[in-house]
Amino acid sequence: MKACIFAVGSEMLTPFRVDTNSLVITERLNTIGYDVRLKAVVADEVGELADVVQSALHWADLIVITGGLGPTEDDITRDAVARVLKVPMEVDERIVDRIRERFARRNLAMPEINRRQGMVPRGATVVDNPNGTAPGLWLEHGHTAIVLLPGPPREMKPMFEALVRDRLAPASTGAGLFRRVLKITGRTESDVDAQAQPIYGQWTTEPVPISTTILAVLGQIELHLTAHASGQAEADAALDAAVRRLEEALAPAVYSADGRPLEAVIGDLLREKKLTIAVAESCTGGLLTSRLTDVPGSSEYVDRGAVCYSNQAKIEMTGVPEALIREHGAVSEAVAEAMAAGIREHARTNIGIGITGIAGPGGGTPEKPVGTVCIAVIVDDQTRVRTFPFFGGREMVKFQATQAAMNMLRLLLIRGTA
Fold it and tell me: What is the pTM of this model?
């Protein structure tokens, strides 16, 4: 069954608002067998919304529209759907009464403008909204069901879940789409695909077919596996086997198959091994420490982080010899290793990490261009130091540096090699 999702609201076509409802809706629809083929954000213009709904009626089994159900003139979703279905709008006085009662419970008089929320296309079934004034609507046109839901997530989510339970799931085939994501770092997209494609290319014809998408994300590669199965148990069995095959082929580059970010994987390893960590950062400006401490419970293993941005700070806070900076430069493997050793000794932790580099956009030289970052990781008696040539702007270089530092640490923790 095919579905599409429209989010209505001109504000989501600016840099200041993002449609998040479609993510929730897609995930839930997938589990009951709907394949979401289209998502779109539509401005508060009745003709434009009517056009996209009309187009979707030709192929979609389900159209879900969120937003545009409020009381003001720019709330045009009801009007657009009525125009497409060629039905009149009628006032449902029961809706108006419920809205009036809601205001009365707060000792307020209902503004007359709220009567607009009682206008419904003829033939629509009202979906109760226990958390707001805008009711949802369910309509049917030929083979297509059309669902209208309010935009605020706290109102939309429970209403949509009730529709899934009462209307959509009972009418589904019982099959669903189930997903896993493998997260990989330290490898290029083409390298990953060259090894993975001969494996996943065979899965589309299996009894439980699995489709695979490879995505290049900043600092990592993701393999998205989607199984079409009759239920969760069947999907889990197929996906578990698929993940094992990919992990065997790509090990040790796969760091997560359960959704955890790299900082959470690192945290679990440190907690399991009862190790503590201190970090000295220059070009990353505290980003590595911030990511490590984004994990709940990280106080068990993170001792401290020092931002040693200037040469003097490197000398005073981590004990880097001034002569070492003069000889090798602040951006060098020697200085990164001294920073890691110094912060580790000062904090008396098992692990020390030092990062120094050129995040840009200025400061680069022919010998050390922008994006050059030196990283040192010390775990007890093991030391690994590398120089990376990262690409992109300042924020991208900083993020990639923290990703690389955590991956070096992960490799040392799991197999003693980085």
Answer: 0.78
